[in-house]
Write a structure and sequence with these properties.
This protein has 292 residues and is mostly helical. Helix content is 70%, strand content 6%. Helix 3 runs antiparallel to helix 4, helix 4 runs antiparallel to helix 5 and helix 5 packs antiparallel against helix 6.
């Protein structure tokens, strides 16, 4: 008994077009069009003036933005570590973010890859790493024990960091590069992180240390938005030759810091934070009239 012939038309319609058919090409073309549209719609286009002419540039520079992304990751890791109660790791992550933040700008200048996108991305990364992270780490460790005053002080620091970054962005190119106007946000974050790291390492959780930490966070925030000048160290020529004793001093510095990192970093950044008000008082005394 012979079998019925197969309904080839039904089978073909069920299986769909062959890989080499026109239908398959149309589907692939549609997928390619979607990918091209996605790339085109998400592309970054910047306008800049080069040699007196307006130039439109597509894309972003990868190398400096990799450092910025790494700093952003370190700042986010600090937040997560602080929430989980690992305050030593949270403080160390802020210092790592500080190092990476210092590298991205220098790499951009050395490779001539500065861009408006990179500047904005760096500012947003700084807001998390040096604004939100230090305040949250300090709050989750000890400021929350003070109650409402603790989170108000933490918010004060975050707000001052945001204001500091906004002011810095609009003052680029209009102030003396030798000085920062106000305490730089990375230094403020390092001061807070070193304080948390040191006090937590010595289990300093008495009420007096809670008040001290509150003063540290509040003072760091207020100094960021002050008009006190801080030396920027931008005049130091890292590419030029230096005396041998300079390298020896750097090596000794690393040795001293490695003995007790938290305490030494607290002393180092504490001295830098205090240098601004100290120099301001000295300048005022020098310029004040005798007997005034």
């Amino acid at each position: 008994m012979s079998q019925e012939p197969r309904n080839t038309e039904h089978d073909i319609s069920r299986e769909g077009p062959e890989p080499g058919s026109a239908g398959g090409k149309d589907e692939r073309r549609g997928e390619e069009d979607l990918a091209a549209v996605f790339v085109r719609e998400t592309e970054v286009i910047e306008e800049s003036i080069e040699n007196g002419k307006k130039v439109r540039r597509k894309g972003i520079y990868l190398l400096p933005n990799l450092f910025t992304t790494s700093a952003l990751f370190a700042g986010f890791f600090s937040v997560v570590a602080g929430i989980n109660g690992d305050f030593t790791a949270a403080a160390v992550a802020i210092f790592i973010a500080m190092v990476l933040d210092g590298l991205d700008g220098r790499v951009a200048r050395m490779t001539n890859t500065q861009s408006a996108f990179g500047a904005e991305y760096d500012s947003l990364s700084d807001m998390l790493s040096f604004g939100v992270a230090p305040a949250l780490v300090a709050f989750t460790w000890i400021l929350q024990d003070i109650g409402k005053t603790g989170w108000v002080v933490a918010f004060l620091y975050v707000a001052c960091a945001a204001l500091r970054l906004a002011r810095f962005n609009v003052q680029i190119g209009s102030v003396d590069k030798k000085w920062f106007i106000g305490l730089p946000s990375p230094s403020a974050a390092a001061f807070v992180a070193a304080s948390v790291w040191t006090f937590h390492s010595f289990d300093a959780e008495a009420f007096g240390f809670k008040l001290l930490m509150m003063l540290v966070v509040a003072a760091a925030g207020i100094l960021m938005v002050s008009n006190i000048r801080y030396y920027s160290f931008k005049e130091i020529d890292l590419k030029g030759p230096v005396p041998f004793v300079v390298l020896l001093a750097i090596v000794l510095g690393f040795v001293v810091i490695s003995v007790e990192p938290s305490v030494m970093l607290l002393l180092l950044f504490g001295a830098y934070v205090a240098s601004g008000p100290t120099l301001a008082i000295m300048r005022k005394m020098r310029h004040s009239p005798p007997g005034g």
